[in-house]
Design a protein that fits this description.
The protein is mainly α. 64% of the residues lie in helices and 0% in strands.
Length: 553
């Protein structure tokens, strides 16, 4: 079997990531440039694919407040998603047959990137349908949406925002975007960024996991679990979480190898990680707090104590220095004013079992029956059992692999922080956003389940290679080309189904769930005094429909 020098093999039986067996590193700079060019091509394909469905959805002619229209819109998006995705998979199958499969790796690489972009583009297209006919963002100027719009407007005009501890990157991004493209109207601009932010989710997650895994594995074991968290209302907070995990894992992997690296690449990599972590911290800082203990444990465990302590310290020093250059000022604000900022807002999840994290009903649960849902084993459901079994199996199979250990440590760190904050809730009468650890626990748990499949497939591939080397008959498993095409087909259907579900939860409805957010957007008077096109009964008001307040406990 030949392996392209352009990058890791895309097949499932081979990881191509940092946990794979050592293999020769190309000496020629041309090979490195070629690999960089291919990664850039993947990025272009992923981001372009993410925009296809939202652009097509703008041409849909429907009333987004009608349920039949919503179902038709979701089906129309799904049809286009499937057709475009199948075109890329057909290209992979064709590449397998032409010119002895010379371009198979390239086709599979681009197909994986395209599916990542198409999947988040599906959710963004759903937001386009949900907000069709209104210029307002989800929830208009109510709740978090209203505060973000107000604070971004202040920042864009050189004034301080209403909260010094709120992450500055979203406010500055919204403020500048509004100045450049919306004449300074941060409210209307926020609608654009809700859609664009959801669309960028898939490509960004995919590219971060490409630091660790080959293309199809990055899509299957990194991107697919992330789609349980994609959010079109405030897309940046969940995006930071799903990017932070692979970035921190890649940093620990680089730290482990730093003892044998050259000084220049070592310092450049350290500075690069610091820059990236600084940008993520400026965008949303909560995940850093809940992950800190776990990452510290992994860093101490994989620090090059024997092979190069000085180089390991230099790598961490470069990372810290770059981080402080980017986010040092905001970090000082968080360490000072953040300590005095208290969250007294008790939400729906603050009244439920703190050990239940597998599903978050958001702050606006609507009609809820028995919650958490009753499970078969001591009140715990099958999904929880599978997650915990996979946690143990992943540690068993990958105890020496920094990817597995770091993710498991982040899971445990978030769990401990969750219980620590919740245990003081009665004493302090504050919640401090501890329920947001749901998302980190769920994502890390899903990743550990995916990593079990990753590690098992690696062992199967290793056994296959061993048989070939010994000259004994091969196992009954087909070649890697079939594995790649089969995985892409399965992921197309999985991501299409998940994306449809996540898009559907934002379809306008007056039910007290997240669907009330776009519903309110259709009931707010536009700035020219007119009502949105599909305002119920043609009536609207300054603040929009406020009946959602009756659903809050």
């Amino acid at each position: 079997m030949t392996v392209s020098t352009a990058g890791p093999v895309t097949a499932l039986p081979s990881s191509g990531g940092p946990d794979a067996p050592a293999r020769p590193i190309p000496a020629a700079r041309g090979a490195l440039r070629s690999r960089g060019s291919l990664l850039l091509l993947e990025a272009v394909v992923a981001f372009a694919a993410a925009l296809v469905l939202p652009v097509l959805a703008r041409g849909f002619k429907l009333n987004p407040l009608d349920r039949i229209a919503q179902v038709s819109g979701l089906a129309a998006i799904q049809l286009r998603f499937a057709l475009v995705g199948l075109l890329f998979i057909a290209a992979v199958a064709l590449a397998m047959r032409l010119r002895r499969g010379r371009h198979f790796d390239l086709a599979a690489r681009l197909a994986a990137a395209a599916l990542a972009g198409l999947a988040s583009g599906f959710v963004a297209a759903g937001a386009v349908v949900a907000l069709h006919g209104t210029p307002w963002p989800m929830f208009g100027l109510n709740g978090d949406s209203g505060r973000i719009v107000e604070w971004a407007h202040a920042v864009a005009n050189g004034r301080p925002s209403g909260s010094p501890v709120y992450p500055p990157a979203p406010l500055h991004t919204l403020g500048y975007y509004a100045e450049w493209f919306r004449g300074g109207n941060t409210a209307y601009a926020f609608k654009d960024l809700q859609i664009l932010g959801a669309a960028a989710f898939g490509p960004l997650v995919y590219l971060c996991w490409r630091m660790l895994l080959s293309p199809v594995r990055a899509l299957a074991f990194g991107v697919a679990p992330a789609f349980s968290l994609i959010d079109a209302y405030k897309p940046y907070s969940q995006t930071v979480l799903v990017l932070l995990v692979p970035v921190l894992v890649a940093m620990v992997v680089s730290l482990r190898r730093s003892g044998t690296d050259g000084w220049r690449p070592l310092l450049l990599k350290g500075a690069g990680f610091g820059l990236l972590l600084g940008l993520l911290f400026l965008t949303y800082s909560g995940w850093f707090l809940w992950s800190a203990a776990g990452v510290l444990f992994a860093a101490l465990l994989y620090f090059p104590w024997r092979t190069g302590r000085l180089k390991g310290a230099a790598f961490l020093g470069a990372t810290l220095a770059a981080f402080l250059v980017v986010a040092g000022r905001y970090l000082m604000v968080m360490l000072t004013e953040g300590q005095t900022t208290k969250d007294y807002n008790f939400r729906f999840d603050n009244f439920t079992d703190p050990a239940y994290y597998l599903m978050w009903r958001t702050d606006m649960p609507g009609k809820v029956g028995d919650w958490p849902p009753p499970g078969e084993y001591g009140g715990v459901g099958l999904f929880a059992l599978v997650t915990f079994v996979c946690l143990g199996a992943a540690i068993w199979l990958g105890i020496r692999r920094p990817m597995v250990v770091t993710i498991a440590a982040m899971f445990i760190s978030a769990w401990v922080m969750r219980m620590y904050i919740a245990s003081h809730m009665y004493e302090t009468q504050t919640v401090q956003l501890y329920t947001r650890t749901n998302n980190q626990l769920l994502y890390c748990g899903l990743l550990l389940c995916a990593l079990v499949a990753h590690l098992v497939s690696q062992r199967m591939a290793a056994a296959r290679r061993t048989d070939d080397a010994d000259g004994t008959p091969r196992t009954g498993f087909p070649g890697r080309e079939g594995a790649v095409i089969g995985a892409l087909c399965a992921l197309l259907l999985l991501l299409g189904t998940v994306s449809s579900s996540m898009a559907d939860r934002y379809m306008p409805a007056k039910d007290g769930t997240y669907r009330i957010l776009p519903w309110v957007s259709h009931t707010i008077t536009e700035q020219d005094g007119s009502c949105p096109k599909f305002a119920p009964g043609g009536t609207c008001s300054k603040d929009g429909d406020q009946s959602w307040l009756s659903f809050i406990r």
